[in-house]
Amino acid sequence: MLKLDSVTKRFGTRSVLNAVSLELAAGEYVAVVGESGIGKSTLLNVIAGLEPVDSGKIVFDREEITGMDDDALALLRRDHFGFVFQAFHVLPHLTVQENVGLPLLLRNFSSAEILRRSIDLLSTVGLAGREASPPRELSGGELQRVAIARALVGEPRLVLADEPTGNLDPENAAQVLRLIRKLTKEKGSAVILVTHSAQAAAGCDRVYRLTTGGLTPAAC
């Protein structure tokens, strides 16, 4: 479903990604580990088309995306990708349910379908009854569950998770990782989880280590 072929990314004279290659099938859950600052977030950004590559190519669903224009990439992200970030990025002026339903609103789903899907997912992630709550009333672990529900409400084919447990205590971190794995496996979504934590990577189908030389297989 996703293939990276010798992808290289530079910022000025500094090489961040060097000849990175990866293949990901539908339903696979893959972790990329590495030290802070090694380029893990940049890897997700180039996969999502948020940063251009300097060389190499990225193919999603048999279509090369490295040559797409900004409008096509925006539609690709909207319709097929889901994002979970370390910082939650939950909008404070929206209710919990409105935050979860926002991706569907942007895709012109009906109000009834947005409400149904968002309420169902909030129940699944353990937040039934909190639909009308403002984000300020939720804990960090609860906010990350909102972010997971928002990432998955559109049934994306690819989920990109950038240090999603970095701001959580160990118990909440474990719960969040179990939720991501459970919900994405149920929907058949592929996942790339980037993390500096070997514990967070445990349980993935495959683990890779990102270094200045590229991606190399690592122990699960």
What does this structure look like?
36% of the residues lie in helices and 28% in strands. The chain has one domain (2-218): Rossmann fold (3-Layer(aba) Sandwich), CATH 3.40.50.300. A hairpin with a 2-residue loop joins strand 4 and strand 5 (63-64). The strands form two sheets. A six-stranded mixed beta sheet has the order 6-7-8-3-9-10. A four-stranded antiparallel beta sheet has the order 2-1-4-5, covered by helices on one side. It has seven helices and ten strands. The model has no long low-confidence stretch (mean pLDDT 93). The chain is globular and about 50 Å long. The chain has helices at 40-47, 70-80, 96-106, 111-124, 140-152, 170-187, 198-201; strands spanning 2-11, 14-24, 29-33, 55-60, 63-64, 81-85, 158-162, 190-195, 206-211, 214-218. With 220 residues, the chain is an alpha/beta fold.
- The radius of gyration is 17 Å
Give the total of domains: 1
- Could you give the distance between the termini? 22 Å
- Please give the order of strands in the largest beta sheet: 6-7-8-3-9-10
CATH architecture: 3-Layer(aba) Sandwich
Largest sheet: 6 strands, mixed
Low-confidence stretches: none
Question: Could you give the topology of this structure?
Answer:
Layout: E1 2-11, E2 14-24, E3 29-33, H1 40-47, E4 55-60, E5 63-64, H2 70-80, E6 81-85, H3 96-106, H4 111-124, H5 140-152, E7 158-162, H6 170-187, E8 190-195, H7 198-201, E9 206-211, E10 214-218
Parallel strand pairs: 3-8, 3-9, 6-7, 7-8
Antiparallel strand pairs: 1-2, 1-4, 4-5, 9-10
Provide a compact summary of the structure:
The protein has 220 residues and is α/β, with parallel strands linked by helices.
